[in-house]
């Protein structure tokens, strides 16, 4: 075992954005060829904690679309919540607080933090935020690709007749939803939202926001990435950006497939600009993520090695790999009302 491997194995590694395949095949505990993330791969890659997201595709902004989205998110969160029963609670634990994540990892179980990707799931009813929280969700991404009734997205959907901007950022409902998230202790995820939506969310939220799967636009000009002003504002508010293993967010496709060193380069750029306390990593596995050197959860140690090559200290790598996100979870928990 080399020094990088020993260092990786000692970390509390937390990947903040992984999708779950849908429909569910009941194979999370198996060593599959179809999933980038399953329990054997997590063990092999030394990944101790994961945020599993219920991804809700954007549809029409009408009652039927909202009802269908709500049915799906309930089903998906129940599948995530059922994983301890499916594979054994000695193997995985459902976690709703930063402390429960630490406790699960200390006990040798993989900590699972449920999440929701796309506020389309709540339709036009901010009251459903509390129901998502009760189902285990600890962050919600405000949009996906395509505007919803809460906020404008970074990438409008022509097939849904989206204008460039629908609300000019957040809608009134979006602000209500953020307030509801703050009240119940749920983190606000600003990945996927438009620049205006992101900047307004930072102002609106009582607690720091997180971009769970985004990269630096200064290094790769993609609309899903955050520009320097957004990074600065994120840091000023105490927030966090999790650099993600999506090749097209890390480098232009014409330059070839991104590598784990490209990911570490984005982390280093953000750390230099706004501080290591405001950056982390995520994979977006089973949702389009995967790069050379980190193509599935089994290759987690390669991320640590790449961070070492960038010159990060062991203490900084602890923060990047999970410490920063756990801090934000604690801030959200402490701001709960009722």
UniProtKB/TrEMBL annotation:
Lineage top rank: taxon: Bacteria
CDD domains named in the record: rDP_like
Record Pfam families: Peptidase_M19
Cited InterPro entries: Metal_Hydrolase (IPR032466), Pept_M19 (IPR008257)
Molecular function terms, GO-annotated: metallodipeptidase activity
A Gene Ontology BP annotation from the UniProt entry: proteolysis
PANTHER family named among the record's database cross-references: DIPEPTIDASE, MICROSOMAL DIPEPTIDASE
Protein name listed in UniProt: Diguanylate cyclase
Taxonomic classification: Bacteria, Pseudomonadati, Pseudomonadota, Alphaproteobacteria, Acetobacterales
